[in-house]
Known about the structure:
The structure holds two protein chains of two kinds.
Chain A: E1 11-13, H1 16-26, H2 31-37, H3 41-70, H4 80-115, H5 123-145, H6 170-198, H7 211-243, H8 256-273, H9 276-290, H10 297-311, H11 326-338, H12 340-355, E2 360-361, H13 363-385, H14 388-394, H15 398-428, H16 434-460, H17 476-506, E3 537-539, H18 548-551, E4 559-564, E5 571-575, E6 582-587, H19 594-611, H20 614-632, H21 640-647
Antiparallel strand pairs in A: 1-4, 3-4, 5-6
Chain B: H1 14-47, E1 50-51, H2 68-96, E2 105-112, E3 115-120, E4 129-132, E5 134-138, E6 143-149, E7 154-158, E8 162-167, E9 173-177, E10 183-188, E11 201-207, H3 209-220, H4 229-241, E12 269-270, E13 275-276, H5 279-287, H6 289-292, H7 305-315
Parallel strand pairs in B: 2-6, 5-11
Antiparallel strand pairs in B: 2-3, 3-4, 6-9, 7-8, 10-11, 12-13
Amino acid sequence: MKAADFRTPRVGIDSVEHQGKLYRHWERPEGVWGFLGSVDHKEIGIRYIVTAFVFLALGGLEALVMRMQLAGPNRTLLTPEQYDQLFSTHGMTMIFLYASPILSGFSNYLWPLLLGSRDMAFPRLNALSYWIYLASGLFLYAGFLTGNGPNDGWFNYVPYASKAFNPGLNEDFYALGMVFLGISVTVGAANFIVTAFRTRAPGMSIDRMPILIWGTLTASVANLVVIPAVSLAFFLLWMDRQFGTHFFDTAGGGQALLWQHLFWIFGHPWVYAIVLPAMGMVSDGLPVFCRRPLASYSLVALSTVATMILGFGVWVHHMFATGLPGLGLAFFSGASIAITIPSAVAVFAWLATIWLGRPVITTAFLFFASMIILFVIGGVSGFMTASVPVDWQLTDTYFVVAHLHYVLIGINVFPVAGAVYFWFPKMTGRMLDERLGRWNFWIMFAGFNIAFLPMHLTGLLGMPRRVYTYNDYPGWHALNLLTSVGSVIFALGILLLFINVAKSLKGKATAGANPWDAPTLEWSLPSPPPPYNFAVIPTVASRHPLWEGRLDESSKRSSLDRGLLLDQGKETIATSALDAGPDMILEMPQDSVAPLVLALGLSGLFVGLLLKSWTLTALGGVVLTVALFMWLWPRRDLREREAEAAHV
Amino acid sequence: MNASPLGYLNAAGTRAHSILPLTWFMLLVSIVVCLVIGILLWLGIQRRKVRGAEDLVRVPLTHDGNGVQWIRVGLIVSAVPLSVALVWTMFVLAAVAGPPVHPALVLDVTARQWWWDVRYNGNGPANSFQTANEIHIPVGQPVLVRLHAADVIHSFWVPKLTGKTDVIPGQVNQSWFEADSPGRYLGQCSEYCGYQHAHMQFEVVADTPQDFAAWTAAQLKPAQGPTTEQQTRGLALVQFRCGLCHQIRGTDAGAVMGPDLTHLMSRRTLGAGTLANNAGNLAGWVEAPQELKPGSQMPNQYLSAAELQDALAYLETLK
């Protein structure tokens, strides 16, 4: 974005002629080049969502194969090596290639629509973020498909990950792939932060932002803080492996525990980063079906931020058994118990919303509401592991596997499925089938709980994590079989979601602008929205611009039909950070393949590093540099040349 | 469910005992919280629910109350078990975190891919010995275990006696425990350590003082020599082949890559809990460990049938 010349933008109302102008500025060219060069947040968002669901399906298939191996004791479907790569790849896929990108996808798609803006603050950075995500995902999977998948769990402890014990390319793929992916997350996070603070519609002061914005904003700040730790850790690991440095090599004076600190300083905030936006979806979606505003908006927003702040101080609860001093453990134990409080705020706010509202039972509602109980189950098991002495027994058993699946599936997959039902009409103009939706929900809900509720008991009976097989101890076989059966049912539920989407895509676009009678700005737009989103930039006077007439909370009214026209170029408005007063006109960049070329250059570079082919690395570097020149070259459409001329 | 040898909801040692009441308290609080929230959610939905998406627009909006009361009450109620759990945690932590001041026995356990090397340090080398995958302790006495890692990270865990302590290269962690009554308690590596993490078990055997003394005396002895011709042939073969990695005290087999075999037949399992230790399994294990514990450090031996019989004849004397 770039501040344009000083000019007072015109205010007016929408018209056919006005829309024609906007289409000329905003519509991307047809064809392959148009597709590859698109910087439209809606297209990028959908690409993110589709790609993330592909990875969800892959990770799910990996899980099903593992569950076949574990359905009974001493089964030999998989060799230990195959099992190790499968569970590591499953974790990597679900945590890094599904759970975070799916939320980035929804946020990318929704943010400008929720904020009353025409695009993200940095549309090209947005495209770059997606292309790097795709490229690093393919990079990581290239390892798996060539038999070189990660084999040391997603947390990748040294020294098992070091060259002495892991001589193959497995860990090089993983280490470089994670550094690669980290770039995508970092630029994406920077984009979200600036977008949230500077591109809200006039009048959308910070206490009027939807909770989804709070969630993704908080997660993005966390990512900016913690991604460097994990990127560094993986880079140091790669240096240890390839150049004989000794960061983690105890024989050379390094520290094996250093890895765990660097990893979990990142890893725990990351867990919150992949649930807070999903909690935001529930906070925004649930009230629509309860026919009332979210209860205690301010407390929910504050609890989102508080969770993250506390979340920076709990990483050692992944390391309670590592022999750290008791005083340190006590601190982290206390912090881990305290973090229950902000989560409880959200839970009671959702319950109050349901109790004080008129719940309308739709599929989206069922997904959002069921998340509350799944969240609580995942929360209380987390509360148990927060107690150091109790955790010494629980940790690294299936109890923790059950816990983390309640957290990640309960607080990520269920809200995401709800979000698909809720926002699919906005994205495509088509409703999803409600009847199929009920089947979808109940099969997923039943399958999930059949698979994972008994797994707590498997853990209490002492079954350790990450074992490729197990002995026939009393109770273990039946419980594992139950989990395997449940996982198949759950997978069928997910399949129904995909089927429902496929079915609806064939149907007619009859959803209309606001099928759920929802209150936020995206529902004031046609479904799907035009490339420029808002024909006139709205002015916002409350948290519920589309409900304010009926709620009548104050005499102020938002202005949706009349607002800034901004039709003299690809423009939107920048506003001040807290109270969203209009600040300047933003000239938005045109479509460009530069982000794609940059991502390709980076891919070459990383493949070169992997193969230790310095020619390829240099070539990647050259392509990357060319892409940066393409990207940063002064452009007339941003009035950069005129500004220069004026100076002369 | 008490029967599961790795289950930790019943304990057989002081250290595990002191954790149990807190575990039960937190587990019950957790279950009650889930039930209460579940019921509140269910009632909340049932109370005023409207069916069907088509009617959504027709349901009038409400904005009664802002729910602050819910959060206030909810937090006050939640704060009680949270505070109790926190304080209780600190007390239990203080009680179990420190090692015993006067342990009756100090052991050095080295975790390796994928077995456990156990050293008993007596007064001087003549009173010290080494064994593997089976730790005998005197019942009712505190035992301190110093944990060494030979390769990657492992974790020492005997659910009925003590929680986990990671075994980490470059540092010596400590675990301790005390068994209430004589018996066998299963231990398991509980930090992922590679291919055979699943088959990295050990047993803690709590003996009466007499049994423990007898066992120690027996372990201190070197291996008895062969008595038959077949055993003699077996010893030669075992020294030549097995001796590359294993130690049999009293013979020329003196390597320390693999488990000490001096009293192999006194142990209950083979391959760190992979198989029961009996004649048939021993034959299979010597001949083809890679079939039974794929990825294990022990290679297949490809002995002829006659050689295998000789080796077994000798190995079975290692009582």
